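Consortium newsletter contribution from the modelling node. Members have asked for a concrete example of what our holo predictions look like. Here is one, prepared for the zinc ion complex that several groups have been discussing at recent meetings.
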Amino acid sequence: MHEQNSSTTGLSRRGLMQAAGVTTIAGLAAATTTGAAAAPAGAVKKPSRGDAALVLLGTAGGPTVYADRAGVSSAIVVGDAFYLIDLGHGALSQVAAAQLSTATGPAARPLSGLAGVFLTHMHSDHLAEFSSLIINGMWNGITDPSDPVPIYGPGDRGGLPPVLGDRDAPPVIAPDDPTPGTVTMTTRAIEGYAQDLNERLRGSGGVDPGAAFAPHDIVLPDGVDAPVDAAPMPRVSPFLVHEDSRVRVTATLVEHSPVFPAFAFRFETEGGSVVFSGDTAPSENLIELANGTDILVHEVIDQAWAEARFPEPRTPAQEATLKHLLEAHTTIEQVGPVAESAGAGTLVLNHLVPGDGPVPQYRKAKKGFSGRLVVGRDLDEVAIGG
Ligand SMILES: [Zn+2]
Ligand SMILES: [Zn+2]
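And here is the predicted structure:
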Protein backbone atom coordinates (compact mmCIF):
# COMPACT_ATOMS: atom_id res chain seq x y z
CA MET A 1 0.00 0.00 0.00
CA HIS A 2 2.80 2.32 0.86
CA GLU A 3 4.62 1.61 -2.39
CA GLN A 4 1.49 2.30 -4.34
CA ASN A 5 1.13 5.65 -2.63
CA SER A 6 4.74 6.49 -3.38
CA SER A 7 4.27 5.63 -7.02
CA THR A 8 1.24 7.83 -7.10
CA THR A 9 3.42 10.57 -5.76
CA GLY A 10 5.96 10.46 -8.52
CA LEU A 11 3.34 10.27 -11.21
CA SER A 12 1.34 13.10 -9.78
CA ARG A 13 4.22 15.48 -9.26
CA ARG A 14 5.93 14.91 -12.57
CA GLY A 15 2.71 15.14 -14.45
CA LEU A 16 1.99 18.45 -12.83
CA MET A 17 5.43 19.80 -13.50
CA GLN A 18 5.18 18.92 -17.17
CA ALA A 19 2.11 21.09 -17.43
CA ALA A 20 3.10 24.72 -17.16
CA GLY A 21 0.97 26.67 -14.76
CA VAL A 22 -0.55 26.07 -11.40
CA THR A 23 -2.23 22.94 -10.30
CA THR A 24 -3.77 21.79 -7.08
CA ILE A 25 -2.63 18.34 -6.15
CA ALA A 26 -5.85 17.58 -4.31
CA GLY A 27 -7.87 18.72 -7.30
CA LEU A 28 -6.24 16.11 -9.49
CA ALA A 29 -6.90 13.24 -7.13
CA ALA A 30 -9.13 11.44 -9.59
CA ALA A 31 -6.67 11.70 -12.46
CA THR A 32 -3.83 10.68 -10.19
CA THR A 33 -5.68 7.64 -8.95
CA THR A 34 -6.41 6.58 -12.51
CA GLY A 35 -2.78 6.98 -13.46
CA ALA A 36 -1.58 5.05 -10.44
CA ALA A 37 -3.95 2.22 -11.17
CA ALA A 38 -2.62 1.98 -14.73
CA ALA A 39 1.03 1.91 -13.60
CA PRO A 40 2.25 -0.98 -11.48
CA ALA A 41 3.85 0.00 -8.17
CA GLY A 42 7.51 0.79 -8.65
CA ALA A 43 7.20 1.21 -12.42
CA VAL A 44 7.40 5.02 -12.33
CA LYS A 45 10.90 6.29 -12.91
CA LYS A 46 12.19 8.97 -10.60
CA PRO A 47 12.15 12.52 -11.93
CA SER A 48 15.30 13.86 -13.49
CA ARG A 49 17.24 16.57 -11.71
CA GLY A 50 15.93 19.16 -14.12
CA ASP A 51 12.42 18.76 -12.75
CA ALA A 52 11.76 21.53 -10.27
CA ALA A 53 8.63 22.87 -8.64
CA LEU A 54 7.35 25.15 -5.93
CA VAL A 55 4.76 23.53 -3.67
CA LEU A 56 2.69 25.61 -1.26
CA LEU A 57 2.16 23.52 1.85
CA GLY A 58 0.43 26.13 3.99
CA THR A 59 -0.68 29.63 3.05
CA ALA A 60 -2.17 31.23 6.19
CA GLY A 61 -0.28 33.96 8.02
CA GLY A 62 -0.39 34.59 11.75
CA PRO A 63 -0.89 32.31 14.74
CA THR A 64 -4.66 31.88 14.19
CA VAL A 65 -5.54 28.34 13.13
CA TYR A 66 -7.87 27.93 10.13
CA ALA A 67 -9.79 24.95 8.83
CA ASP A 68 -8.98 25.57 5.17
CA ARG A 69 -5.37 26.79 5.26
CA ALA A 70 -2.39 25.39 7.14
CA GLY A 71 0.25 27.68 8.61
CA VAL A 72 2.80 29.13 6.24
CA SER A 73 5.21 26.62 4.77
CA SER A 74 6.53 25.93 1.28
CA ALA A 75 8.70 23.43 -0.52
CA ILE A 76 11.13 23.58 -3.39
CA VAL A 77 11.33 20.23 -5.12
CA VAL A 78 14.33 19.46 -7.32
CA GLY A 79 14.48 15.97 -8.76
CA ASP A 80 14.19 13.50 -5.91
CA ALA A 81 15.10 16.02 -3.20
CA PHE A 82 13.09 18.74 -1.54
CA TYR A 83 13.68 21.74 0.71
CA LEU A 84 11.29 23.25 3.24
CA ILE A 85 10.89 26.97 3.80
CA ASP A 86 9.25 27.73 7.14
CA LEU A 87 7.23 25.25 9.19
CA GLY A 88 3.85 26.70 10.18
CA HIS A 89 1.23 24.60 11.93
CA GLY A 90 0.27 21.54 9.94
CA ALA A 91 3.39 21.65 7.78
CA LEU A 92 4.42 18.03 8.21
CA SER A 93 0.97 16.68 7.45
CA GLN A 94 1.03 18.83 4.33
CA VAL A 95 4.40 17.35 3.33
CA ALA A 96 2.73 13.94 3.48
CA ALA A 97 -0.39 15.17 1.66
CA ALA A 98 1.71 16.73 -1.10
CA GLN A 99 3.68 13.50 -1.38
CA LEU A 100 6.94 15.34 -1.78
CA SER A 101 9.06 12.27 -1.27
CA THR A 102 9.64 10.12 -4.33
CA ALA A 103 11.26 7.38 -2.26
CA THR A 104 9.77 3.92 -2.68
CA GLY A 105 10.09 0.65 -0.83
CA PRO A 106 9.52 -0.41 2.76
CA ALA A 107 11.90 2.23 4.18
CA ALA A 108 10.25 5.16 2.35
CA ARG A 109 8.82 7.83 4.60
CA PRO A 110 7.26 11.28 3.99
CA LEU A 111 10.49 13.12 4.80
CA SER A 112 12.76 10.84 2.75
CA GLY A 113 14.56 13.20 0.40
CA LEU A 114 14.46 16.24 2.67
CA ALA A 115 17.68 18.07 1.84
CA GLY A 116 17.42 21.30 3.82
CA VAL A 117 15.24 23.51 6.01
CA PHE A 118 15.19 27.32 5.87
CA LEU A 119 13.54 29.48 8.53
CA THR A 120 12.81 33.08 7.62
CA HIS A 121 12.36 34.40 11.17
CA MET A 122 11.47 33.53 14.73
CA HIS A 123 7.70 33.89 14.70
CA SER A 124 5.49 31.01 15.78
CA ASP A 125 3.40 30.96 12.60
CA HIS A 126 6.63 30.01 10.78
CA LEU A 127 7.96 27.66 13.46
CA ALA A 128 5.02 25.82 15.00
CA GLU A 129 6.08 22.47 13.57
CA PHE A 130 9.80 22.91 14.10
CA SER A 131 9.96 20.77 17.23
CA SER A 132 7.77 18.16 15.53
CA LEU A 133 10.29 17.96 12.70
CA ILE A 134 13.13 17.53 15.15
CA ILE A 135 11.60 14.93 17.45
CA ASN A 136 9.59 12.99 14.85
CA GLY A 137 12.09 13.25 12.00
CA MET A 138 13.67 9.88 12.73
CA TRP A 139 10.32 8.13 12.29
CA ASN A 140 9.60 9.92 9.01
CA GLY A 141 12.78 9.44 7.02
CA ILE A 142 15.52 11.48 8.74
CA THR A 143 17.78 8.60 9.72
CA ASP A 144 21.29 9.24 8.43
CA PRO A 145 23.71 10.87 10.88
CA SER A 146 26.43 10.61 8.23
CA ASP A 147 24.43 13.07 6.10
CA PRO A 148 22.56 15.33 8.54
CA VAL A 149 19.83 17.59 7.18
CA PRO A 150 21.02 21.20 7.32
CA ILE A 151 18.76 23.76 8.99
CA TYR A 152 19.36 27.47 8.43
CA GLY A 153 17.67 30.20 10.41
CA PRO A 154 18.19 33.36 12.43
CA GLY A 155 20.79 33.59 15.13
CA ASP A 156 20.28 35.15 18.55
CA ARG A 157 18.44 38.45 18.28
CA GLY A 158 21.02 40.08 20.50
CA GLY A 159 18.56 41.55 23.00
CA LEU A 160 14.86 41.82 23.77
CA PRO A 161 12.70 43.90 21.42
CA PRO A 162 11.12 47.12 22.67
CA VAL A 163 7.65 47.10 24.28
CA LEU A 164 5.14 48.57 21.83
CA GLY A 165 2.76 51.35 22.81
CA ASP A 166 2.13 52.28 26.42
CA ARG A 167 2.04 48.74 27.74
CA ASP A 168 3.73 47.85 31.00
CA ALA A 169 6.83 45.73 30.48
CA PRO A 170 5.65 42.09 30.43
CA PRO A 171 7.41 39.21 32.17
CA VAL A 172 10.46 37.88 30.35
CA ILE A 173 10.37 34.26 29.18
CA ALA A 174 13.65 32.44 29.85
CA PRO A 175 15.41 35.53 31.21
CA ASP A 176 18.85 33.89 31.17
CA ASP A 177 18.69 33.51 27.38
CA PRO A 178 15.48 35.15 26.11
CA THR A 179 16.20 35.48 22.37
CA PRO A 180 17.79 32.19 21.25
CA GLY A 181 18.74 31.51 17.65
CA THR A 182 18.25 28.41 15.53
CA VAL A 183 21.07 26.33 17.01
CA THR A 184 19.94 26.90 20.59
CA MET A 185 16.27 26.44 19.69
CA THR A 186 17.15 23.02 18.26
CA THR A 187 19.11 22.03 21.35
CA ARG A 188 16.31 23.14 23.64
CA ALA A 189 13.69 21.27 21.61
CA ILE A 190 15.68 18.07 21.94
CA GLU A 191 16.22 18.62 25.66
CA GLY A 192 12.59 19.54 26.22
CA TYR A 193 11.45 16.24 24.73
CA ALA A 194 14.22 14.21 26.38
CA GLN A 195 11.88 11.80 28.14
CA ASP A 196 10.22 10.81 24.86
CA LEU A 197 13.45 10.65 22.92
CA ASN A 198 15.26 8.57 25.54
CA GLU A 199 12.37 6.15 25.78
CA ARG A 200 12.15 5.71 22.03
CA LEU A 201 15.89 5.37 21.49
CA ARG A 202 16.00 2.72 24.22
CA GLY A 203 12.77 0.99 23.32
CA SER A 204 12.61 1.22 19.54
CA GLY A 205 16.02 2.23 18.29
CA GLY A 206 16.21 5.29 16.11
CA VAL A 207 18.62 8.13 15.59
CA ASP A 208 19.74 10.91 17.89
CA PRO A 209 18.09 14.00 16.36
CA GLY A 210 21.08 16.02 17.51
CA ALA A 211 23.10 14.02 14.98
CA ALA A 212 20.47 13.74 12.23
CA PHE A 213 20.06 17.50 11.84
CA ALA A 214 22.75 20.15 11.43
CA PRO A 215 21.37 23.54 12.57
CA HIS A 216 23.08 26.76 11.56
CA ASP A 217 22.60 30.34 12.69
CA ILE A 218 22.76 32.43 9.52
CA VAL A 219 25.71 34.79 9.75
CA LEU A 220 24.71 38.42 9.25
CA PRO A 221 26.31 40.42 6.44
CA ASP A 222 29.43 42.39 7.23
CA GLY A 223 28.70 45.65 9.00
CA VAL A 224 25.33 44.57 10.49
CA ASP A 225 25.32 44.33 14.28
CA ALA A 226 22.46 42.73 16.22
CA PRO A 227 20.00 43.81 17.31
CA VAL A 228 18.46 46.28 14.91
CA ASP A 229 15.39 47.55 16.74
CA ALA A 230 13.76 49.79 14.18
CA ALA A 231 12.99 49.93 10.48
CA PRO A 232 14.42 50.34 7.98
CA MET A 233 16.94 47.53 7.87
CA PRO A 234 20.43 48.35 6.70
CA ARG A 235 20.74 48.06 2.93
CA VAL A 236 22.60 44.85 2.18
CA SER A 237 23.28 42.92 -0.97
CA PRO A 238 22.21 39.27 -1.21
CA PHE A 239 24.55 36.89 0.57
CA LEU A 240 25.11 33.14 0.22
CA VAL A 241 23.49 30.80 2.76
CA HIS A 242 23.68 27.34 1.19
CA GLU A 243 24.85 25.67 -2.00
CA ASP A 244 24.73 22.07 -3.15
CA SER A 245 24.44 20.23 -6.44
CA ARG A 246 20.76 21.19 -6.85
CA VAL A 247 20.25 24.65 -5.39
CA ARG A 248 22.04 27.84 -4.55
CA VAL A 249 20.34 29.80 -1.77
CA THR A 250 20.99 33.45 -1.04
CA ALA A 251 19.34 35.70 1.53
CA THR A 252 18.75 39.29 2.50
CA LEU A 253 17.38 41.21 5.48
CA VAL A 254 13.75 42.28 5.20
CA GLU A 255 11.50 44.75 7.05
CA HIS A 256 9.72 42.93 9.86
CA SER A 257 10.72 45.11 12.78
CA PRO A 258 10.90 44.57 15.70
CA VAL A 259 11.69 41.01 14.65
CA PHE A 260 15.40 40.79 13.93
CA PRO A 261 16.80 39.30 11.87
CA ALA A 262 14.07 38.47 9.35
CA PHE A 263 15.26 36.91 6.12
CA ALA A 264 14.04 36.48 2.56
CA PHE A 265 15.54 33.62 0.53
CA ARG A 266 16.25 33.12 -3.15
CA PHE A 267 16.54 29.60 -4.55
CA GLU A 268 18.37 29.21 -7.85
CA THR A 269 17.77 25.88 -9.57
CA GLU A 270 18.76 24.60 -12.97
CA GLY A 271 15.23 25.34 -14.15
CA GLY A 272 14.79 28.82 -12.70
CA SER A 273 14.55 30.88 -9.54
CA VAL A 274 12.08 31.29 -6.67
CA VAL A 275 12.21 34.03 -4.02
CA PHE A 276 10.43 33.82 -0.66
CA SER A 277 9.77 37.18 0.93
CA GLY A 278 9.26 35.88 4.44
CA ASP A 279 7.36 38.46 6.50
CA THR A 280 8.14 41.98 5.40
CA ALA A 281 6.92 45.43 4.59
CA PRO A 282 7.93 46.65 1.11
CA SER A 283 11.69 46.19 1.12
CA GLU A 284 14.45 47.52 -1.11
CA ASN A 285 16.64 44.62 -0.01
CA LEU A 286 13.94 42.17 -1.13
CA ILE A 287 13.48 43.88 -4.50
CA GLU A 288 17.22 43.54 -5.09
CA LEU A 289 17.19 39.87 -4.05
CA ALA A 290 14.18 39.18 -6.28
CA ASN A 291 15.53 41.00 -9.32
CA GLY A 292 14.36 39.12 -12.43
CA THR A 293 13.16 36.07 -10.51
CA ASP A 294 10.85 33.61 -12.23
CA ILE A 295 8.60 33.30 -9.16
CA LEU A 296 8.19 35.66 -6.20
CA VAL A 297 6.34 34.11 -3.26
CA HIS A 298 5.25 37.11 -1.22
CA GLU A 299 3.32 37.65 1.99
CA VAL A 300 0.25 39.92 2.03
CA ILE A 301 -2.11 41.55 4.52
CA ASP A 302 -5.56 43.02 3.94
CA GLN A 303 -5.30 46.55 5.36
CA ALA A 304 -9.08 47.01 5.50
CA TRP A 305 -9.36 43.84 7.60
CA ALA A 306 -6.61 45.03 9.94
CA GLU A 307 -8.24 48.42 10.43
CA ALA A 308 -11.64 46.83 11.04
CA ARG A 309 -10.06 44.63 13.69
CA PHE A 310 -9.10 47.70 15.66
CA PRO A 311 -12.04 50.09 15.19
CA GLU A 312 -11.72 53.67 16.34
CA PRO A 313 -11.42 55.02 18.93
CA ARG A 314 -8.23 53.02 19.59
CA THR A 315 -6.22 52.89 22.77
CA PRO A 316 -2.52 53.74 22.39
CA ALA A 317 -1.72 50.03 22.71
CA GLN A 318 -4.24 49.14 19.97
CA GLU A 319 -2.89 51.94 17.79
CA ALA A 320 0.63 50.61 18.24
CA THR A 321 -0.41 47.05 17.39
CA LEU A 322 -2.25 48.17 14.24
CA LYS A 323 0.70 50.32 13.20
CA HIS A 324 3.00 47.35 13.75
CA LEU A 325 0.76 45.06 11.65
CA LEU A 326 0.77 47.47 8.73
CA GLU A 327 4.41 48.52 8.97
CA ALA A 328 5.77 44.99 9.29
CA HIS A 329 3.75 43.49 6.42
CA THR A 330 2.86 44.28 2.80
CA THR A 331 -0.69 45.25 1.91
CA ILE A 332 -2.71 44.01 -1.06
CA GLU A 333 -2.22 47.40 -2.67
CA GLN A 334 1.56 47.38 -2.13
CA VAL A 335 2.52 43.88 -3.21
CA GLY A 336 1.86 44.23 -6.96
CA PRO A 337 4.20 47.21 -7.35
CA VAL A 338 6.86 45.35 -5.31
CA ALA A 339 6.71 42.42 -7.73
CA GLU A 340 6.76 44.82 -10.68
CA SER A 341 9.84 46.61 -9.32
CA ALA A 342 11.59 43.26 -8.94
CA GLY A 343 10.64 42.23 -12.48
CA ALA A 344 9.18 38.95 -11.24
CA GLY A 345 7.54 36.70 -13.82
CA THR A 346 4.94 35.23 -11.46
CA LEU A 347 3.76 36.62 -8.13
CA VAL A 348 2.45 33.95 -5.76
CA LEU A 349 0.68 35.26 -2.67
CA ASN A 350 1.09 33.28 0.52
CA HIS A 351 0.97 34.09 4.23
CA LEU A 352 -2.50 35.53 3.67
CA VAL A 353 -3.66 37.71 6.57
CA PRO A 354 -6.40 36.98 7.33
CA GLY A 355 -6.26 33.34 6.31
CA ASP A 356 -10.03 33.22 5.76
CA GLY A 357 -10.36 36.40 3.70
CA PRO A 358 -12.23 36.34 0.37
CA VAL A 359 -10.00 35.36 -2.55
CA PRO A 360 -11.35 38.15 -4.84
CA GLN A 361 -10.03 40.64 -2.31
CA TYR A 362 -6.52 39.18 -2.68
CA ARG A 363 -6.84 39.16 -6.47
CA LYS A 364 -6.76 42.96 -6.30
CA ALA A 365 -2.99 42.52 -5.87
CA LYS A 366 -2.80 42.30 -9.68
CA LYS A 367 -3.07 46.08 -9.82
CA GLY A 368 0.35 47.47 -10.65
CA PHE A 369 1.83 44.10 -11.67
CA SER A 370 2.18 43.10 -15.32
CA GLY A 371 3.08 39.44 -14.69
CA ARG A 372 1.01 36.45 -13.65
CA LEU A 373 -0.68 36.54 -10.23
CA VAL A 374 -1.46 33.42 -8.23
CA VAL A 375 -3.44 33.73 -5.00
CA GLY A 376 -1.92 30.72 -3.29
CA ARG A 377 -3.93 27.81 -1.96
CA ASP A 378 -2.60 24.96 0.13
CA LEU A 379 -1.06 22.23 -2.05
CA ASP A 380 -0.86 24.42 -5.14
CA GLU A 381 2.10 23.49 -7.26
CA VAL A 382 3.89 25.85 -9.64
CA ALA A 383 6.43 24.56 -12.13
CA ILE A 384 9.79 26.33 -12.01
CA GLY A 385 10.80 27.28 -15.50
CA GLY A 386 7.75 25.50 -16.89
ZN1 LIG B 1 4.12 35.41 9.82
ZN1 LIG C 1 6.38 37.32 11.36
